[in-house]
């Protein structure tokens, strides 16, 4: 089964204690697609400017990602700058130049509309709603968001959430949306808003999944070298939904495994700057991290 992602496409300038990149490939759509494409065919809807170096995303084409929904508009690509300090759980945004992203109005090519698995990446809730109005009978719609939209359009965000099957939030976002400090209660409060499944990410402390019938928690992959946390969340979502789409099975047991593959793909994403570590992974590398997570969580 194939996966549709609608999100940002960016040129990121990122500084961490380990180095710096300028105008590197970024944006939620590309991180997501890079991770998901190891599992399932990916269709991308995003906007770039004429200055975007398309050759730098050729690796996605080689893995059959579909770019017919990638709009190339006159003007400059969205640019985002971020700085991470010693504690890489915290980052400061140094600049956000929306450029062509300001005019983004997602248009799904007709052949995209029946895509069964849909990921609404981090874009304005009204744009996420526009996507929902264009898809036909999806099997699974999963939503991501960020503090900016929770601050500026919580009502709109809740309306979109009511139409989704699953949401992925980090701990701060879950608390901010619900006003509930306890994360398990916060996740249950989000379920009351409509989605049947809620996934909460806790950075280096792992993630958990809550649905009506299941609770499952997993630590992060034990990495000793982390160079750039940008895009970890989108790569996590890519591994997770890509795996579900590959098997086309939405049982609680498969969601548990999907959480593990999401964790594995996020662990690769942060090992290098930009999408670089996700360019050319082998099946063996992915499977061996999956097995390692099984090994470190088994206790009986
Ligand atoms: P994450 O680390 O998962 O939050 O994702 C980081 C990516 O989000 C970067 O590659 C940025 O280009 C992109 N990004 C940053 N700010 C925004 C925004 N306001 N809207 C959409 N994407 C953004």
> How does CATH name the architecture?
3-Layer(aba) Sandwich
CATH level-4 homologous superfamily: Ribokinase
Q: Tell me, what's the shape?
A: globular
Q: Which strand-content bin applies to the residues?
A: 25-35%
The end-to-end distance, rounded to whole angstroms, is 35 Å
- Give the helix level as a range of percent: 25-40%
Number of domains: 1
Q: Which stretches of 5+ consecutive residues score pLDDT under 50?
A: none
- Cα Rg: 18 Å
Kindly provide the name of the CATH class.
Alpha Beta
Number of strands: 13
Folded structure, characterized:
It is a single chain. This protein has 300 residues and is an alpha/beta fold. The protein has one domain (3-297): Ribokinase (UDP-N-acetylmuramoyl-L-alanine:D-glutamate ligase), CATH 3.40.1190.20. The protein has ten helices and 13 strands. It has helices at 28-36, 58-62, 125-132, 147-152, 154-161, 171-178, 183-192, 232-247, 252-269, 283-297; strands at 3-6, 10-16, 19-26, 42-49, 66-73, 78-84, 91-97, 117-120, 140-144, 166-170, 197-201, 207-211, 214-218. The strands form two sheets. The chain has a nine-stranded mixed sheet with strand order 5-4-1-8-9-10-11-12-13, sandwiched between helices. The structure holds adenosine monophosphate (AMP). Adenosine monophosphate (AMP) is lined by residues 8, 10, 12, 26-28, 80, 96, 122-123, 148, 230-234.
């Amino acid at each position: 089964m194939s996966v549709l992602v609608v999100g940002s496409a960016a040129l990121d300038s990122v500084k961490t204690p380990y180095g710096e990149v300028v105008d590197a490939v970024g944006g939620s759509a590309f991180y997501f697609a890079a991770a998901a494409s190891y599992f399932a065919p990916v269709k991308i809807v995003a906007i770039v400017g004429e200055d975007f170096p398309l050759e730098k995303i050729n690796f996605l084409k080689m893995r059959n990602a579909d770019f017919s929904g990638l709009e190339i508009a006159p003007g400059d690509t969205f640019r985002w700058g971020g700085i991470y300090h010693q504690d890489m759980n915290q980052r400061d945004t140094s600049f956000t130049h929306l450029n062509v992203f300001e005019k983004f109005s997602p248009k799904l090519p007709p052949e995209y509309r029946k895509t069964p698995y849909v990921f609404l990446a981090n874009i304005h809730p009204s744009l996420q709603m526009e996507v929902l109005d264009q898809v036909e009978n999806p099997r699974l719609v999963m939503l991501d968001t960020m503090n900016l939209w929770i601050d500026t359009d919580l009502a709109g965000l809740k309306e979109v959430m009511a139409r989704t099957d699953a949401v992925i939030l980090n701990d701060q976002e879950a608390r901010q949306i619900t006003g509930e400090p306890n994360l398990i209660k916060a996740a249950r409060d989000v379920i009351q808003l409509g989605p049947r499944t809620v996934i909460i990410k806790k950075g280096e402390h792992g993630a958990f999944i809550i649905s009506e019938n299941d609770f499952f928690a997993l630590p992060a992959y034990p990495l000793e070298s982390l160079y750039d946390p940008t895009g970890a969340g989108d790569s996590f979502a890519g591994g997770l939904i890509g795996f579900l789409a590959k098997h086309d099975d939405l049982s609680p047991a498969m969601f548990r495994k999907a959480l593990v593959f999401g964790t594995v793909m996020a662990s690769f994403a942060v090992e290098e700057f930009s999408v670089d570590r996700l360019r050319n992974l082998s099946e063996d590398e992915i499977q061996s991290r999956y097995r390692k997570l099984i090994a470190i969580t088994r206790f009986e």
